[in-house]
Amino acid sequence: MAIGVWLAVKTLNERGPTVTIEFKTASGLVAGQTKVKFKDVDVGQVSAIDVSRDLKSVLVTAEMKHAFGAFLTENTRFWVERPRVTASGVSGLDTLFSGAYIALDPGTEGRAKRDFKGLEDPPIITTSEDGKRFLLRSPTLGSLNIGSPVYYRQIQVGQVVGYALDQDGQAVSIEIFIQSPHDTLVSANTRFWNASGIDFSVSGSGIKVDTQSLLAVLIGGVSFDTPETIDSDPTSAVESADFPLYATRETAYAKIYSRKERYLLFFKGSVRGLAIGSPVLLKGIGIGRVLDIQLQLDADDLEFQIPVLIEIEPDRVAVRGATPRPDDRDLVRRLVESGLRGQLKFDSLLTGSLYVDLDFYRDAKPELVVRYGDHEVIPTLPGSLQELTTKVTNVLDKVDAIPLDQIGRDLSATAAGANALVNSTVLKQAIVELEGTLAQARGTAERLNQEIAPELANTLRESSATLKNAKSMISDRSPVYVEMQRMFQEVSGAARSIRLMADYLERHPEALIQGKGRGR
To answer: Which of 259, 263, 293 is nearest to 375 (CA)?
Structure first.
């Protein structure tokens, strides 16, 4: 009797707790045969299967081992392991041979519990996996789903484990799990964006296509990174587990500033291609966006004007040399006085989209900032397309001022006169006479070539021989040259004697009568 009592007490003490699990169906479950497993280890067995009172579900009773009594808490989860084929993968193939079983994910924290509601699908992440959960907030879920991958630099480091619509219906909360040690990559400055599908965009810089993996294209995905900026610390600790989920990589990397200022710009030309959300650039750097576009008619002068409301983030401009920072309104007035103007420019010639460009034009007409309603107005200049249209219109006006009809009539009269001259009998007769003259000139040239040319050649040869003889006669060694030298000497001596006689007679004219006396 003592041994029997001892065995009964021992059996009662080693007997584990009994739990009740609610499932929608009992497909594949058999009382007395179906096991309860944790990591393929039997930790319990199904003892009974009943239908709920409302006939909407089934109640499965399972006897658990005594060692697992401490892990049956409010965080414990049960589900039926069956073969499953999903977009994210294939699971439960071993049950094709062993049969379905109830899987267990124990909970180490929370109050003890014995009644559970089973999961229809197995959880993506179990409590035995190391990592950290983060909560993302997004206006829409997009193509994300449970099991969608989480990427870091195109390497999968986690998964989406759940999502829910906020109570106010204004946003969606998406829970992700990032495995260890990759969870340390998340800091306070980390940005998350939706990497689902294919991001295709056309802008002024060309066509851009951005995508992750084929799995992300099919079932969606989330990417994250920590951008390196001048004023941020990538190693800063995570202050909150909530992060915004951006639509694209560009919006995720763009800085967000809470302080915003609004201004009005008035354009008179066409704004086709300008849309709400179009960028506002200053010196080629985005500082805001377009909020609203309207069309207004002035009833007095019947002219249309288009007010464009823009939103500028002043903190995007780092102001130096002033402490404290000057008032934004006063700073804009000073910039307008220095030539700041707004102008519409093409963002893409392919799509025809426009953007608002703010820049300085030193030769612009001086203007001041005025108020229109609750907003200050920044002066504008005609857009590049409008300016080109104005120039073309001016050129066409100048072309219209040219007397094209009179010029046409004059050209017609000139052409008629030229036609009459070309077809006149006098011109034809002159052409005939000119042809005869040219024929005579050609005959004369042939006669000169045949008759006169040989005679001219003989004459040239004789002249050459004569020149050679003359050259030999005037040579310094020729007899003629020697005789002429001697003659020139005698003539020179005679001239000298005559000059002496003339000098003597000039001094003694009486010598012509008396003769030359003595001593003279």
So the answer is: 263
